[in-house]
Amino acid sequence: MGLLRVLLLRLATTAVTLAGVAVIVFFVIRVVPGNPIAMMLPPGATDADIAQLTALYGLDKPIWQQFVIWLSGVLQGDFGTSITTRQPVLGLVLGRLPATLELSIMALVMAVVMGGLAALWGTKRRGTRVEGAIDVANGMALSVPDFLWGLVLILLFGVLVPVFHISGRVTPSLDLPFTTNFYLFESLLRLRFDLWADIVSHMFMPALALAIPLAAIIGQLLKQSLKETMHLDYVTLARTKGYGETHVILREALRNAVLPTLTLVGVQFTFLIGGTVIIERLFSYEGLGNMAIDAVINRDLPLIQGIVILFAVIFTGVNLVVDLLYAALNPRLRHA
Amino acid sequence: MSFLSVRNLSARVKGGPALLRRVSLDVAAGEVRGLVGESGAGKSMIGKAVLGILPNAVQVTGGEIWLDGVDLLALPVAERRRRIGAMAALIPQDPLTALNPSRRIGGQITDRLVDILGWARARAEARALELLAEVQIADPARVMRAYPHELSGGMRQRILIASAFAAEPKLIVADEPTTALDVTVQKQILKLIAGMQAKHGTALLFVTHDLGVVSKVCQRLSVLYGGMVVEDAAVRDFFAAPRHAYSAALLAATPKYTDPMASLTPVPEAVIAAVQAEVAAYDGGAHG
Ligand SMILES: Nc1ncnc2c1ncn2[C@@H]1O[C@H](COP(=O)(O)OP(=O)(O)OP(=O)(O)O)[C@@H](O)[C@H]1O
Ligand SMILES: [Mg+2]
């Protein structure tokens, strides 16, 4: 299957998936008890006040009619208005997206680097105590969920030895010259390393907390797959050519061992993005996840819908990228 | 001393049984030695020991492997590998698994020349093209850019042969280089190896089950049983009159080219018992 066909097929299934997500989220959050209008009004509001506001947000109509109105809006790029902030949902959500993307990608990079190095080192020293120690560390990293790692990191590097910021995305008193919300990226482009350092210092612990379990999964899986590859004939043949073990691992084994790991890392990365919801809350990081929790607390139905749809888009996007990468790395798929 | 001289090589599975029992054999420069014996006799182990690729679970317990006057077993691992890479090469058994599926053919032939021998890339590529033509591959330039899965098993074995001869090694170990191939292709490949060996004057350690093949391509042979060399002879003498009862029985169990339909005698149980007793006596002796 060529890259183009993978792409087209995935775009088609993605459309169906997103439609399904839209239906489910719309109806489910309306079944859950809690009236958003009642929650925004001060105590002592009259029934008439409530009825007026309810009508303003279209919440007096039958649910299926609300759905049709919402969906036709969405198809035109209008995700409605947030009940709590009275701003367009799309703008709010897209404003927060860069923060969460940067956090997730930073975490992914950390996980790949840590897990990759652990796997390579463990393979080079297979059967020795080094490999045993790496296995133990992997097991520990996996036995604790990301938000608990967050707490541990806060205690260690926020309280005990305060080297990193434990809250927010950037020090509030700083003057930000940014035109986009990709602070990490834009600070680099503008060569503002002072700001970059501040942003990294805020992002480091939440990203690390998200990265640790994924790093362990990558480390374990890639090492397993590397070790199996190291027994294959072409690896042995490379040894007879005079190459040392490091070279053999990197050039002969790695590329073929990465393929089975890649698919799983794609799935795990979507879990990592899901994990940002709680991690962002824990570190008061102003991203989508934090916004999502506020939206749920306030029963801000349009905002919840917008965030869920956006997460669904991100997840399917990640899966698409993984499939394309897989096809690109595998010569059998590339040429057939 | 011969170019390759294995002296009293013993090896065992770590914490397990002995696999090689004081194996000695020589391959002179330009000579072809066959290594025969039943499955599990340790033929491949000897080849692997010579090329420095014994499995991790296998441990050498004694002996020497002299390659061009240097005992490989006395060298540090990295140096041993480089020396082997520069002087010796392997023609593997299964061409389908011996090429890296994600690397182009060209790089898999030139890598040793460039990385180990320090050739310029252009020179190595010219050499690879020349060799591919020599192993009768049509359109070598296209094959250089191909990935293994685009080529047939016979083509891949030709490529592996070209790759083995690329650095003009003094010694090649061929471990049953035709058993994984179609019967129709086997003969061509065998002829190709024999032809290349003669042309390049390479010493060859040829591992095989097939005494018929030995009679055609080898000058000397070693018969192996249970990790022990039971007979070391010139091929001509061996086929005229094998000295050891086990090798005689092995010869009797081999189909004759002159009369392939003649009934075959399997190796008699008494002969097996006798050679097993030899192995047991060896294990009971001082060499353990
Ligand atoms: N990785 C390994 N670990 C432990 N024992 C092994 C390993 N590989 C092979 N052996 C054992 O070593 C012995 C010799 O194996 P070897 O591969 O040299 O046999 P062979 O003569 O080449 O047989 P064949 O004709 O089947 O290839 C066998 O008894 C085998 O079980
Ligand atoms: Mg074998």
Give a quick set of tags describing it:
heterodimer; A: 336 residues; mainly alpha; MetI-like fold; 14 helices; 0% strand; globular; B: 288 residues; alpha/beta; Rossmann fold; 6-stranded mixed β-sheet; 4-stranded antiparallel β-sheet; 11 helices; 42% helix; 22% strand; binds adenosine-5'-triphosphate; binds magnesium ion
Tell me what the structure shows.
The complex is a heterodimer of chains A (336) and B (288). Chain A has 336 residues and is mainly alpha-helical. Chain A has helices at residues 3-31, 36-40, 47-56, 63-75, 89-124, 129-143, 146-160, 183-189, 193-229, 233-240, 245-282, 288-297, 301-329, 331-335. Chain A folds into two domains: 2-75, no CATH class; 93-334, MetI-like (MetI-like fold, Orthogonal Bundle), CATH 1.10.3720. Chain A is built from 14 helices and no strands. In chain A, helix 1 packs antiparallel against helix 13 (301-329) and helix 11 packs parallel to helix 12 (288-297). The termini of chain A are close together. Chain B is of the alpha/beta class and 288 residues long. Chain B has one domain (4-287): Rossmann fold (3-Layer(aba) Sandwich). Chain B contains eleven helices and ten strands. A six-stranded mixed β-sheet of chain B has the order 6-7-8-3-9-10, with helices on both faces. Chain B has a four-stranded antiparallel β-sheet with strand order 2-1-4-5. In chain B, a hairpin with a 2-residue loop joins strand 4 (58-67) and strand 5. In chain B, helix 4 (121-134) crosses helix 6 (153-165). Chains A and B meet through helix 10, helix 11 and helix 14 of A and helix 2, strand 6 and helix 3 of B. The structure holds adenosine-5'-triphosphate and magnesium ion. The site of magnesium ion (MG) has 3 residues of chain B, from helix 1.
